[in-house]
Amino acid sequence: MPRYMDIHDGFVGVTQEQFEEAHRHDLAIQDEEGVSFDQAWLDPATGRAFCLSTGPWGGGGMRIHERAGHPTEQVYELAVEVS
Amino acid sequence: MPRYMDIHDGFVGVTQEQFEEAHRHDLAIQDEEGVSFDQAWLDPATGRAFCLSTGPWGGGGMRIHERAGHPTEQVYELAVEVS
User: Which of A36, A37, A73, B66 is the most buried (most CB within 10 A)?
Assistant: First the structure.
């Protein structure tokens, strides 16, 4: 299934606890779009967050983020990956 | 040790093989800055790549990327993380 990275801006000063809370809102409804939010990271100094997900299409994760209260339009389909 | 995400632009149409080759150049010299490049992803349609690393400071990874031939100045320190 395709993997996606999305970027959120504007999370300056957000704490670990607040970020986990936001993530929980995604997890609670992700099944409704067949999405799995796998990992997420935040740089609280710049307010930029990164969210790695898998799902049938990129729009599904964006719908979940929007419904969870933190919409973004910056999403990238990761057709190439190394680890 | 701090974790970092860096962004590279301009990799439109880069293949899995080419991306792995670029990554190998990083891995070959990463120890010289005490950096570990852990994962990397690419959206070849937009040319944007994401690179997750750990290291003593963000500049170390950027030095490695520069020496490996793919410099970037877009680096974020990921003080907050969920998985």
Answer: A37
